[in-house]
Structures are given as C-alpha cells and as structure tokens.
Amino acid sequence: MVSLSRWADEIDDDDFIDDQPVAKENLIPGKQDFLRPKEGERIVTEVKTDPESGKRYQIHRTFRLEKKLLSKGVIDRKTRWSKFGASKRDAPGPNSATTVVADEVLMQFLNAKNADESGMDDANNPFAKLQQEGKGFVKCRYCHDNHFSAKCPYKDVAGLSEISSVVNRNAQMGDDDIKKVDSDAKPGVFLPPALRGGNRRGELMSSGNQRKDEATIRVSNLPESMSETDMQELCSPFGKIDRIFLAKDRSTGVCKGFAFVTYQNRETAARALRSLNGYGYDHLILNVEWSKPANN
Amino acid sequence: MRPLMLQGHSRAITQIKYNREGDLIFSAAKDASPCLWYSHNGERLGTFDGHNGTVWCIDIDWKTQQFLSGGGDMTIRLWDCETGKELNQLDRDSPVRTSLFSYSGNMVVYSTDAAMSKPCEIFLADVRDPDQLGESVTRITVEGPKVTALLWGPLDHTLITGHESGKLTQWDLRTNKIITTVEDHQATINDMQASKDGTMFITASKDHTSKLFDMDTLECLKTYKTERPVNSGCISPNLEHVCLGGGQEAMEVTTTATSQGKFEARFFHLVFEEEFARVKGHFGPINSLGFHPGGTQYASGAEDGYLRVHNFDQSYFDYKYDFYM
Fold this sequence. Notes:
heterodimer; A: alpha+beta; 4-stranded antiparallel beta sheet; 18% strand; elongated; B: mainly beta; Methylamine Dehydrogenase, Chain H; 2 domains; 2 helices; 3% helix; 49% strand; RNA-binding (chain A)
C-alpha cells in the first residue's frame, strides 16, 4: 500500500512501525499516519526511490501473524534448508517466475438432485391450492373466469376491444364452435404464434412467405471463403434483394458452399438464375436453380 | 479459492507427491528436472538436476531425507532431499516406470518397462546405505503385460502391481510368488494411491473408471465411473471423498476446445460413488493428483505443464452429502 499524503495528522511515533530496517531519518516525514497495527498484525515499511523520476515513496505492508504448531521436521525444512538446483539464486520467498497466484476458481457443487426436489408440487403451490378451493382470487381479464389472463383460451380469438362481445358470443355458441375457432388451444397450454390458427409444426406462419419462395434461387458450388458481402456483390446487379442466406458451419464459420437468395420478384430472380448458372466464380462454376420449398 | 500455479516445468507433469507431513510437494515432468516446492506458499525450494529424459516416477521416504526418481533415460536415482545432491544412480536396460520407498524407508522397489526386447522387471533394494542401490535383494521378471503402477502392501510384506492390461497382482515378497490376481479393469492402470491408513487403495484406469480395492484381498469395493480416461485418483485423508483427474488422451488435446476437454478435477463421495463437485483450471488432462496429508489442500499436475495447489474453501468442509436411510 502506498501511503497517501495526510496533511491533517502528523503523528510521529516509532511504535507503529516495528523492527523495520529503514532508519528513521530516511522515512518520509508525516507518512507514518494511521499505521497502528491491529492485534496479531505487523507492519513493515520500506522506502524506495524511483530511479527515473527520483521520487521517494514509502511502502507499508501489513502482515497478519499466524501461529501454527508444526513438527520439528517441518520447522527444520522451513528455516534451515536452503535453495538448490535451478532455484539456488532465488531470494527468500516465492519467485514470481515460478509461482503465480492463479485466478479465483470455485468448487462447483453438483446438486442436481436438490434442484429437482426444490420444484414445488401442487400441494405446496399456493395458487393451485387456492384454485382447488375454488376461491376466485385470480380473475381473467378476457372471460372473467378463474384463471390468469395469459392462460385464457379465448385471448387470441379477437382483439382486446371486442372482449366482452366475444365472450358473450362464445357463451352462446356450443362447445364445438369454440373448438373450431381455436382448434389447438387447450386451456392453459401455450401455443407459439406460428402454430395458432391450425398451422402445423414446421409450416410457415403466413402464406406471404410462400409467395416469396418463388422468387428464391439456390446458388451452390460456392467457394469456402464466401462471405455475405461477396454474395451481395455477386447477386445485387440483377435486382433488389430481399434476403440472402449463406449456409455456414456453425462452429468454424466457413461457408458450406451454398446459399439462398430471395429477390423482390420472380423476374429478377429468373434473370439472376439465367446469368449466374454456369458462371465461373473464384475458380468454381456456380450452379443455380430454383429453390424448392421444404417438404414437410 | 485462489490456487497457486507452479510453473517450474517446461513439459507435461508426470507425477506429483506430498511428503508425509505435507509441507513439501515433489513434482516430476517429462522434462529432466524434478522440482521441490513448499506447499503453503508455492515457493520453489530446488530442482533435482541430472536426468537426461522424462522422469516417470518419484517418491519420498518417511523422513523426507531421500528422494527417488526413475525415468525414461533408463536410470533410477537416489537424491538427498535437503541439498538436491545425487546420492547414487543406477542404469537399467529399459525405462524405469514406477518407483517407491517402503513405509519404513529402508527398501525401495522399482519396475522397468518391457522395451527393446527386455522384459518388464521388478527390483527391490535396501537403501539404508545409498551405495547398495545396485545390490538388488530381489528381482522378479514379470510375464505378460508390463507394470504401470505399484504399491506396497501392509507392513511391506506384499507388493501390489497394476498392469497395462488392467489386471492387479499381489506378490508375496518372501517367496516372490503371486498371491492374487484380479481383472476388474479393462485397460491400463495409470495410478494407484493408498488411503491414509493403508487399508484400501484407489486405482485410476484408462477404461474410464476408478475403483476402490481392499489392500489385503484385492476385493473391488467401489467403482467411480466417468466418461473419460482417468489418469490419477486420490483418497481424502479425513473426509469420505475421492478426487479423480483425467481427460482425453494427450494426443487428442490439441484438436478439441478446452471447454470440451473436461480437464476438471472431480470429487466423488467415497461410499456413494456419486460425483458431488468439480474444480476447473487446467487446460490439459490432469496426470497426477495428490491430497495434502491434512486434507486441507490438494494439488494437481497436468499435461499443460502446470501444478495447481488448491487450498479448500470453507464451503468444501461445510458441504454435506445428502442421503436418506
């Protein structure tokens, strides 16, 4: 610790600094302030002069003294043995060339078992308990039923403004009608937007994207060094591009050799296909075809 | 915890050992100079210079007076711990793979590799006078797979050897005959370390398991399963824990990411065979592990050439393994 200048407290007391090798007149006056060692501590002071700037500064090191009972052999080895071999010229104490205090690491306790057990079951879940008891402390914003709004089966049926009318309508409709409106939505089960309205898994959400499919070309036999900007340069002269997908290896980032380019309309895509198919690019001959829709 | 990282070796660590009191750590590597360290602050006390190749095996006697090392330069050497001076050296016909002092420190045992059309042999010598290192009391030629790990049995009456094939053999040192052979492991035994009281020992094998054996009967008591070769295992002297270290083969290390290498030291419960903690840090497989005889510290030496000395946090001692009767 480099002591800071403390103008207010100029305490000059030898007791604070014990058995230091620095002669008293060498110490920087007024820099011994506050160095009152606590119980079981010792402060060692050292005065150094910076060779470049000529500035003298004083270093106080605080050591905590520990008492340990050791066997005679250990004490002998600690106090009497001298260094040998490659360490022969090392100063007492650890040499920073061979001994480094590494970064903090934590012992990672694996208590997967405990984590499982901590999950609340229904008996302990206060909400479930309340629901079972039929207390209506949870009230849905949409249908005013006994569940959270987010779990309401009708929440996607209509816009928020039409809540009440929808609820009323549904109340008039039979069960079959409600199923028709939202066939997949079971109460309490989350459905991602893509799957709502009867879409199956893997299908695209709207038909709009399918229209775009017909303006998409698949370019293959691309060099490994291909990047998105290269692809942009290659394909942009034919017309406006909506989207470029360059297939890359996830871990290495190297191009897998093919790409999908979606143009804004089918004519420009067709033009690009005609021009680029068989085009020599970076010692490879490109192969371009219409992209085929993914078959589900 | 903040481990001490000891960088005294230029190549992969092969073996590390604490002395009996645990104030010193000895380490050997594939470079030629074993090192001696203070365990409490990581200060290097010295190096034992003289070998001309990989040092495969080291051991310290009971009183921390003599140090034994054997290596790929086909020599076994006896050193003075205090000064680092070589007391005696002996040339053998093939690399020295394992070496141990007996409990009393009076005897040494070491084994040589089956190499260059020389058989694998076990030598016993009395080293109360270091000059007698060459006068082997006993010489056993091992038929079949070579010895890769070695332990003294109770009261130095028997010798237990672990072999390249995974078998364990118990030898009677009075008759030099085999007492028992067990084949619980399917691949090379990389390391064997005894428990503090010497009633059992833990093996570390390339077959991805580590097993606990009874020292007397070679009965397999426990099996600790991992998903990678185990290079070293040690038993805590005061808690029912074992620590295992390993990782993929050294030759595969450069082709995989550190995160996939699984170079952590893994702590298992001795009785329940279940892993409960891990400590990361090395970026190569751990080749050798050692528990401080007081159980407050452990050290690991790895293929990356570093030794890491860990003083356990209070959380380790506070940890209680949950089980239901």
